[in-house]
Amino acid sequence: MKKSFILPAFILVCASSFTLSAQQLAPSVDDLTPSITRQASIPDSRPLLLVNNQETSRNALIIDDANLKVDAILKDAEATEKYGNKAEGGVVLASTAGNIQLVSLEQVLDYFKVPASQRNLKVLVDGAMVKPELILADISQIGKVEAGPQDVTAPHRYSLNENERYLHIITKK
What residue ranges in the chain does DSSP mark as E strands? Predict the structure, then answer.
């Protein structure tokens, strides 16, 4: 008889220890209040790239690597003292070999006769999005410039709108 009474009592004690009140399950006001987060800036560890004293980025630079020479690499205090906070990741000073002329995006668009209606589209160079103001290009290295949607097989999607149009700069490989 003792065994039959101990087992139900044990189950009752265990069950009551796992029972939560409605108050415990309901979210508190603190849980519903959005938390205030501090905005932190993550320093860009990529170096500032200057080619012929013009700022660019590796993705926005369209040139045959054989026609580019690195003149100097500045690091730490030397870089920030001369070029400011943009140079926290260092500075690469480069120049073109020979008489290679680098042109801006506007000049590329003029050369390829891109209509005004397409000149404000986001720019992709070989499928990678770039800041238009950083484009420096050797025109002879560009195969074509065309407007159209992003390739659906691209590893990175830049928009959820599959009909969004981009200005594609396709380089010669």
Answer: 48-51, 54-56, 61-62, 68-74, 91-96, 122-125, 128-130, 136-137, 142-149, 165-171
Of 124, 136, 137, 104, residue with least CA distance to 169: 124
The identity of residue 68, as a single letter, is: L
Q: What are phi and psi of 59, to 5 degrees?
A: -70, -25
Q: In this predicted model, what pLDDT tens digit does every residue of 30-89 receive, in sequence order? A: 444 444 444 544 555 689 999 999 999 999 999 999 999 999 999 999 999 999 999 999
The domains of the chain are located at 48-96, 105-171
**Token pair belonging to 89:** 């990741």
pTM assigned to the model: 0.71
